Amino acid sequence: GNLTLTMIKPTAFNKNYTGAILKMINEAGFTIKAMKLTQLTPQQAGTFYAVHKGKPFYDSLVSFMSSGPLVAVLLEKENAVEEFRNFIGATNPEKAEEGTIRKLYGTSLQQNAVHGSDSDENAKVEAEFFFSKLERF
Ligand code: ATP
User: Which residues are recorded as binding ATP (predicted)?
Assistant: First the structure.
């Protein structure tokens, strides 16, 4: 799979990290195929994170991800899902490698700056969640 979906999460967006994060993503060789600034309703955030339903952090995550604007970006690169997950660093910013987006711009396990699709199948589902065919290039 050559596509992955990322979100610049509300805290990172509100801190004006969007430009710096997109610069890092482009410099790492990912190409932007679609992008939008939007705010999810709690219901939409719940749908997006449906796989985590029932986990202790689900309600808080849904609340956070619908708390303000986020930037959704569809990215292309060879082996995009795995490459992007390695590139952004560990889920917990405290455990992420120096110089990664999550280390630089994440502030907590929940507010870890960016999302990255975890499989080719989910990348497709997530791309269709945010973008119509006319919004993809
Ligand atoms: P993402 O799916 O956002 O790329 P991930 O695959 O590294 O992250 P997941 O386990 O899929 O992590 O969790 C999804 C998101 O839920 C994480 O990015 C994080 O914001 C939040 N999260 C995960 N585990 C916890 C936890 N134990 N406490 C609070 N928030 C959590």
Answer: 9, 57, 85, 91, 102, 112
Q: What is the dihedral of CA 48, 87, 72, 50, to 10 degrees?
A: 0
User: Taking a C-beta distance cutoff of 8 angstroms, is the pair 46, 62 a contact?
Assistant: yes
Is 115 among the catalytic positions? yes
CATH of domain 3-135: 3.30.70.141
Enter the pTM of the model: 0.96
Q: For the sheet containing 3-8, what is the strand order?
A: 31-38, 70-76, 3-8, 114-116
Domain residue ranges in the chain: 3-135
Local structure of 80: helix, strand or coil: helix
In terms of DSSP bridges, do strands 3-8 and 70-76 run parallel, antiparallel, or are they unpaired? antiparallel
ipTM of the complex: 0.92
Determine the distance separating the centroid of ligand 1 and the alpha carbon of 13, expressed in angstroms. Answer: 18
Structure tokens at 11: 């805290």
Please tell me the residue having the least CA distance from ligand 1 atom 19: 110
